Amino acid sequence: MAQKYRLTYFNLRARAEPTRLVFAAAGVEYEDVRIQRDKWPDLKPNTPMGQLPVLEVGGVTLCQSMAIARYVAKETGLAGKTKLEEAQADMLVDGIDDLRGRQAVIRKASEDRKEECKKELADFAPDFLSKYENLCGPHGHLVGDSLTWADLVFYDVMSKVLVVLPGALDGFPKLAKVMDTVTANEGVATWLAKRPDTPH
Amino acid sequence: MPAYKLTYFNARGRAEPIRLLFAAAGIKYEDVRIEGADWPALKPKTPMGHLPILEVDGATLCESTAIARFVAKRAGMVGKDDLEEAKADMIVDGVKEVFRKLLTMFFEKDESKKEELKKDVFEKTLPECLRSFGKLANPSGYFVGDSLSWADVEFYNLMEMVRPSFPGDLLKDNANLAKVIANVGGNPAIAKWIKERPESAF
């Protein structure tokens, strides 16, 4: 039986992982298609904007990783309980991209630039995270009092930042609590244990 | 007193799609424009240290796209179900990708690098984007369903930003997108706002 949702990406976490985490947290099944790089040139013209990931659902193909993640979050009840909560989740997801970018650039940097990039992340993170600590709710969730995709996106980015800066959440107890809440989620924990091991 | 207070600089910039949406929906709001000199004092009071912000229902939102989506929801301009909303979201995300490339080009100080970026936008980014978007808009000139949505408004705003650097009819072979522009620009409330809005450099 064909799955209702078909997610296509490369065999990486990267831009598809937020959506995979939402499916996992919600316990919703989907087809997790991972293509080899050499298959991409043939597939590319058949995608809406020449990029991956794409999500096929109801005869429609969606692109743009955050549009997809938000859609799956809405479908699974993880987008926020009111329009205002949805907006607060949206703004926190958009804002985290500044942190994500500074972490991602380390991997792509030439060897002689890597230390500089790590230092830039180390200089940027404290002020950035203090703003998020202020905005974070006290319940172990960024928004409201139950899991939203904002928690999952934050976890995805922060877990990579913590590899470079292990102490980054010291002094930010509400954010640390969000990380614990996410990893304690049964669906997420199962996924983290079984997901394919990929370079990034 | 309006229930919405939008704060930004005296510019179209990242706030204009929000203002266009308020206009299209006929929703009253306070359109606060601050002087550059007043920004340092305000900055630490904002959620993430940047503008625009929207104060509504006792909360303060930031991130222009998140704000625009919220206003579009209140205005009934997001699409009629989750799937249509996702289509609108993906269009807007695509628009923002081009927007960011434009900003990188605008702010490049090295003249020869700036020319290189401009060439890349004109020869690669814009044609590819317009080709994809042309297939995603319908022949009636809407990205989602058969009425004006925030995706149409964001695309219109992008083309307004593009035009000064890339004059000429970029949509001459793109009937669907030309219709999107006509639908947005021809909306009486939007046309009125464009005529009456404060002048600003960008």
Fold and architecture overview:
The complex is a heterodimer of chains A (200) and B (202). Chain A is of the alpha+beta class and 200 residues long. Chain A has helices at 17-26, 40-43, 65-75, 83-95, 97-108, 111-135, 149-164, 173-184, 186-194, and strands spanning 6-10, 31-35, 54-57, 60-63. In chain A, β3 and β4 form a beta hairpin. In chain A, α1 (17-26) runs parallel beside α3 (65-75) and α1 (17-26) crosses α9 (186-194). In chain A, 40% of the residues are buried. Chain B is α+β, with helices and mostly antiparallel strands and 202 residues long. Chain B has helices at residues 16-25, 39-42, 64-74, 82-107, 111-136, 150-162, 175-186, 188-196, and strands spanning 4-9, 30-34, 53-56, 59-62. Chain B has a four-stranded mixed beta sheet with strand order 2-1-3-4, covered by helices on one side. The model of chain B has no long low-confidence stretch (mean pLDDT 96). Chain A binds chain B through residues 48-50, 57-58, 60, 62-64, 66-68, 70-71, 74-75, 83-84, 86-88, 90-91, 93-95, 131, 134-135, and chain B through 47-49, 56-57, 59, 61-63, 65-67, 69-70, 73-74, 82-83, 85-87, 89-90, 92-94, 128-129, 132, 135-136.
Question: What percent of residues of chain A are in strands?
Answer: 5-15%
Helix content of chain A: 55-70%
Identify low-pLDDT runs of chain B.
Answer: none
Compute the number of helices of chain A: 9
Structural class call of chain B reads alpha+beta
Q: Average pLDDT value of chain B? A: 96
Task: Please summarize the sheet with the most strands of chain B.
Answer: 4 strands, mixed
| N- to C-terminal distance of chain A | 31 Å
Largest interface, with counts of residues having CB < 8 Å to the other chain, equals: A-B, 29 and 31 residues
The helix-strand sequence of chain B is EHEHEEHHHHHH
Number of extended strands of chain B: 4
Give the integer mean of the pLDDT values of chain A.
97
